[in-house]
Amino acid sequence: MPLASPADTAACCAPLTAEPLTTEQAEQVAPLLKALADPVRLRLLSLVASRDGGEACICDLNAAFDLTQPTISHHMRVLHEAGLVDRDKRGVWVYYRVCPRALASLGALIGCSPP
Amino acid sequence: MPLASPADTAACCAPLTAEPLTTEQAEQVAPLLKALADPVRLRLLSLVASRDGGEACICDLNAAFDLTQPTISHHMRVLHEAGLVDRDKRGVWVYYRVCPRALASLGALIGCSPP
DNA sequence: ACAAGGCATCGATGCCTGTCAATATAGACA
DNA sequence: TGTCTATATTGACAGGCATCGATGCCTTGT
């Protein structure tokens, strides 16, 4: 297990509206939301998630944006460090796929908990 | 209806993982997430939502933080302009309450709809 | 009319971030 | 070994943001 991402510890609690978040909880969840709070990263994550097989490489993603390759690489790094996507290097290509647990825990926090 | 908040138009679409977000969708949703992506604002929203009656005034919120009153006021303004909370001035006090539609649409976007 | 208190706004400051060009790294293939 | 290609890293720059102190606005009560 290479690194402990924010998604590992965050958002494993009661929904936002049930009881006040503690300072610690808020400081764990905020980085997750911050990683998502960018139009490019939202599209990147959505693009990866909706892809056939649930994965995409940088070259695929690059083609969908009018941004330079380093910028896309930077955004994927942010998503990865937040624990929202996993990396898998196969040969020359690097494939990203969404980490479903992270998204689910975020959804539970925001309060769409169907009992 | 004083202003059209981001929450009015954003996040009324398929979950993030179903199909790629368009640029327009991403640019509508991102401000909502950005408004939430701050530890103080997360606690503020949670505090308001979990309050008896679902509302709180600035003076209540101020007491829960080690920040100045202008800073709290600024954060509540950000939440309000994103469409996440409503304002209601009653006498000297200003009461905030969460706008449930905004949170629900965000939750639907993130994808906590397990069929 | 005046004073007091709750809240918003303004201006300034220091830090964070999105973007790019240039460069580095690393795997595949001849 | 050397070249080509895919991805990451670095350094720099501009814009954004969280915070504060000072101040203004508005409502209530005297």
Shape annotation of chain A = elongated
Number of strands of chain A: 3
How helix-rich are the residues of chain A, as a percent range? 40-55%
**Which strands sit side by side, in order, in the main sheet of chain A?**
1-3-2
The largest sheet of chain A is:
3 strands, antiparallel
On the 0-100 scale, what is the average pLDDT of chain A? 87
Multimerization state: homodimer
Strand/helix succession of chain A:
HHHEHHEEH
- Percentage of residues in strands of chain A: 5-15%
What separation lies between the terminal Cα atoms of chain A? Answer: 32 Å
Per-chain topology:
2 copies of one chain form a homodimer.
Chain A: H1 6-9, H2 23-36, H3 39-49, E1 55-57, H4 58-63, H5 69-81, E2 85-90, E3 93-98, H6 100-110
Antiparallel strand pairs in A: 1-3, 2-3
Chain A binds a DNA duplex (30 and 30 nucleotides) through helix 5.
In a nutshell, what does this entry contain?
Chain A has 115 residues and is α+β, with helices and mostly antiparallel strands. Chain A has helices at 6-9, 23-36, 39-49, 58-63, 69-81, 100-110, and strands at 55-57, 85-90, 93-98.
Description of the structure:
Two copies of one chain form a homodimer. With 115 residues, chain A is an alpha+beta fold. Chain A is 51% helix and 13% strand. Chain A contains six helices and three strands, in the order H-H-H-E-H-H-E-E-H. Chain A has a three-stranded antiparallel beta sheet. In chain A, helix 3 packs across helix 5. The termini of chain A are far apart. The mean pLDDT of chain A is 87. Chain A binds chain B through residues 16-21, 23, 26-27, 29-30, 33-34, 36-40, 42-43, 45-47, 49-50, 64, 98, 103-104, 106-108, 110-114, and chain B through 16-21, 23, 26-27, 29-31, 33-34, 36-40, 42-43, 45-47, 49-50, 64, 98, 103-104, 106-108, 110-114. Chain A binds a DNA duplex (30 and 30 nucleotides) through helix 5.
